[in-house]
Design goal:
Layout: H1 2-18, H2 22-31, H3 35-47, H4 61-77, H5 89-93, H6 150-154, H7 169-177, H8 179-183, H9 197-201, H10 204-218, H11 221-234, H12 240-252, H13 256-269, H14 273-285, H15 289-302, H16 307-319, H17 323-336, H18 341-353, H19 357-369, H20 375-387, H21 391-404, H22 408-425, H23 428-441, H24 446-459, H25 462-475, H26 480-493, H27 496-509, H28 514-529
Length: 530
């Protein structure tokens, strides 16, 4: 009798499921993040005849289905505006928002290295093309820094992996805009050119869903801004949400000062963490990191222990080369949220470059325990094990990293690190093969060219080494090693002029390098004798 009753129960549930009201079913799919099913159910409802108004809400089922479908389509392509920050070549090179052409030390992200805060030098920790140390966690702002020339901006640095768009509008934003074709093969769900925005602005519940759809799904910032302006006017300028949305539109359009006014006005009406993050983002785009820090710190007074604000402060200090202060804030993040991947990765990276691989190993093991399982983590574990003299785990970690590598760039990173391990144990033939394999996977790997050149010098192949160093210095003008090595080789070969030029470039990349300073002094003495 038991199994029979269970079967009958299942049949009853199935019959009840078939009788579920379609709008409720669509809402259930939306709550379970099955947005495509939700959209299809809403489409079926919209194809039927418009129904009567519900007494309690004043809206028809037709309007409810329309609103739910716009929300479902938006959620399919939604990207958090706070984290999405892709600065294009045009914004970087043709920046009209510069406050001062020559900023004071420690007040600009464009002049990294001006406020060294106890961080290791470029001799120990590699830097990006903007001169900032490579962080332990990839974010949009760390992918590649602000270049000094247009040529440097167009060339993709090794850490970026993707070509930078000409403008931010032609980058992520337009790619998001094409989503309407994917989610609706028959054509757009809403014809924006025929919409009477003033009518929708008077219905707040519909207007908010429509705004999100226009802004995120259709990527039509101008229409979204018009709707937000009409809606905030209808709300008598008392609704903080609409002010934030107008600020987002202004930010997208590059009107940063107008965006700043809107976010400040919204904060006066309603204190929200998101609004503080948007305001700080505006200041960072205006290259005012100190003002952004003040905004975050004022936010922390009102929201003590808020992880996103602490993390924002840590990121700014890290970008300004103040590594020790950044590490302190990342520790504060971990006190509030001990599973914060970015904070653990950044502290681990900082410990590794501060010559504490054993402590870094503990942080990376913590990430492994949390379920992070990728090529980069095993790559880092392999390096930490090698420098912590736990040789039994080194090669197995790198093998796992090679197995998990998703693209050729990741594979190149692993082979490059294996080359370093080979140099460390004195097997120069293995090192040579590893660096060659690095270049097979990624032909623009400047560090591998530099290290191959050093190995070629040891074999006595001077001309090959010079060619490799020239390639490395062309690919990565921000690295001092290829310039300095080329200067040394040229000086030994008697080509003093080339040696002096390369030494000067090395000094520009790393002003505190003592060997470069001594070489320049030696060359200048020789020129004086001539």
């Amino acid at each position: 009798p038991g199994p029979a009753r269970q079967a009958a129960g299942r049949g009853l549930a199935a019959r009840m499921g078939l009788e579920t009201e379609p709008l409720f079913q669509a809402w259930s799919c939306f709550r379970r993040r099955k947005f495509r099913q939700c959209s299809e159910l809403c489409s079926q409802l919209l194809e039927g005849a418009p129904s009567e108004q519900e007494l309690d809400t004043g809206y028809t089922k037709f309007q409810a289905a329309w609103s739910l479908k716009t929300r479902a389509l938006t959620e399919m392509v939604y990207v958090d505006e706070i984290e999405m920050d892709q600065e294009g070549i045009a914004e970087m090179m043709l920046d009209e928002n510069a406050i001062a052409q020559v900023a004071r030390p420690g007040t600009s992200l464009k002049l990294p290295g001006t406020s060294q805060g106890g961080g290791p030098s470029p001799a120990v920790r590699p830097v990006t093309q903007s001169g900032r140390p490579i962080t332990g966690f990839v974010r949009p702002s760390t992918q590649s820094g602000r270049p000094s020339t247009v040529e440097q901006a167009i060339k993709t640095p090794r850490t970026a992996l993707t070509a930078r768009p000409i403008t931010s509008a032609s980058g992520g934003s337009v790619r998001l805009g094409t989503a309407s074709m994917i989610t609706n093969p028959d054509g757009p769900f809403i014809n924006l050119s025929r919409l009477n925005l003033a009518k929708y602005a008077q219905k707040p519940e519909l207007a908010k869903a429509l705004f999100e759809y226009i802004f995120h799904h259709e990527n039509d910032v101008k229409n979204a801004l018009d709707l937000a302006a009409l809606a905030t006017e209808h709300a008598q300028f008392k609704d903080w949400w609409w002010k934030v949305q107008i600020g987002k539109c202004f930010y997208r359009l590059g009107l940063y000062r107008e965006a700043e006014k809107q976010f400040k006005s919204a904060l006066k009406q309603q204190d929200m963490v998101d609004t503080i993050l948007y305001l700080a983002k505006v200041y960072l785009r205006l290259d005012q990191p100190v003002t952004a820090l003040n905004v975050f710190k004022q936010g922390l007074e009102r929201f003590p222990g808020e992880v996103t604000l602490l993390c924002g402060i840590a990121r700014i200090y890290e970008e300004m080369n103040n590594i020790s202060t950044a590490a302190e804030y990342y520790k504060d993040v971990l006190k509030q949220d001990n599973t914060h991947v970015e904070a653990i990765a950044c502290i681990g990276s900082n410990r590794f470059y501060s010559d504490q691989p054993e402590i870094a190993l503990r942080f990376y093991r913590r990430l492994l325990q949390m379920g992070v399982y990728n090529c980069q983590l095993f790559n880092n574990l392999g390096l930490c094990c090698f420098y912590a003299q736990q040789y039994d785990m080194t090669l197995t970690s790198f093998e796992r990293a090679l197995f998990l590598a998703e693209n050729e760039e990741e594979t190149a990173d692993v082979w490059y690190n294996l080359g370093h391990v080979a140099v460390g144990i004195g097997d120069l033939n293995l090192a040579h093969q590893c660096f060659k394999l690095t270049l097979v996977n990624n032909n623009d790997y400047a560090e591998a060219y530099n290290n191959l050149a050093v190995l070629e010098v040891q074999k006595g192949h001077i001309e090959q080494a010079r060619a490799l160093l020239q390639t490395a210095s062309y690919l990565a003008p921000h690295m001092y090693e290829p310039h300095f090595n080329f200067a040394i080789l040229s000086e030994k070969a008697g080509d003093l002029q080339r040696s002096y030029t390369a030494a000067r470039k090395s000094q520009e990349a790393f002003p505190g390098h003592v060997d470069t300073q001594q070489l320049i002094k030696k060359l200048e003495e020789r020129f004086a004798m001539l």
